[in-house]
Amino acid sequence: MSKPVKVHSVAEGPVDGPVVVFSGSLGSDHRMWEPQVKPLVDKGFRVIRYDTRGHGASPVPAGPYALADLGGDVLALLDEHGLERAHFVGLSLGGMTGMWLGVNAPDRIESLTVCCTSAKLGPPEMWADRARTVRESGTAAVAEAGAGRWVTAGYAAAHPGRARFLREMIASVPAEGYAASCQAIERMDLVGDLPRIVARTLVVAGAEDPATPVEHAEVIAGGIPDARLEVVEGAAHLGNFEQPERFTALILEHLEVAR
């Protein structure tokens, strides 16, 4: 594990409310969680969103990164906010980070929600190739394809402005940060560690997710003791953004039980 970086974060909601930390997808920043903020704040939760290292306004240390690095940054974020424990919600790379925390820092995680993610996402060559492409040509070279995985074609056609917002989000990520994060996914294998997670866990999958299909969620839910699996129809990879009402309802329901 490298030295933690101080990631950029945004905290909203009552200062004395239960804290929920939101962690995003490869190629995103904290804005991807915008649909979830007001509903949670209105229910009394304090919402902390952050930009993964190498993304958004966070520092961009040289790669490669490992999941342990990304998890260490979250632990430093909790310390920065004076938090012993927090609920954690992660999507894709954020979900991988959440599972790492569930295994390696169980005393810091109040509950765990992992969305549209995987415990092992091969083939490794794909991630090495994508990292190479981004280092050579920048994140704009993968923005169209990335946004095409994030939302269904029907959603993109019906909401061209939002689809453009997502493409621009990916294209704004520093090339080294994106590529170094690809390398974390390339080497990741959490499958054997899943039974060690003790946090109450909700696993959410998008029925139309081409990046982490439902089978990946089934592996996670089958490996984590007593995990609950929910599949959301009409959702591709950025399911919280495409189907915000359903994802938010599932997250809130899980948080209220664990509260």
Can you give a write-up of this model?
The protein is of the alpha/beta class. The chain is 46% helix and 15% strand. The protein has a 7-stranded mixed beta sheet, sandwiched between helices. α2 packs across α3, α4 runs antiparallel to α8 and α5 packs across α7. The protein is globular. The model has no long low-confidence stretch (mean pLDDT 97). InterPro entries: AB_hydrolase, AB_hydrolase_1, AB_hydrolase_fold, PcaD/CatD. It holds the Pfam family Abhydrolase_1.
* Largest sheet entry: 7 strands, mixed
Under CATH, the homologous superfamily of the domain at 9-119 and 190-258 reads Alpha/Beta hydrolase fold, catalytic domain
Give the topology string: H per helix, E per strand: EEHEHEHEHHHHHEHEHH
Overall, the morphology is globular
CATH class placement of the domain at 9-119 and 190-258: Alpha Beta
Mean pLDDT: 97
Q: Write the CATH architecture name of the domain at 9-119 and 190-258.
A: 3-Layer(aba) Sandwich
Unreliable residue runs:
none
Report the span from N to C terminus.
31 Å
Pfam family, one: Abhydrolase_1
GO molecular function: 3-oxoadipate enol-lactonase activity
Domain AB hydrolase-1: 18-135
Organism: Amycolatopsis coloradensis
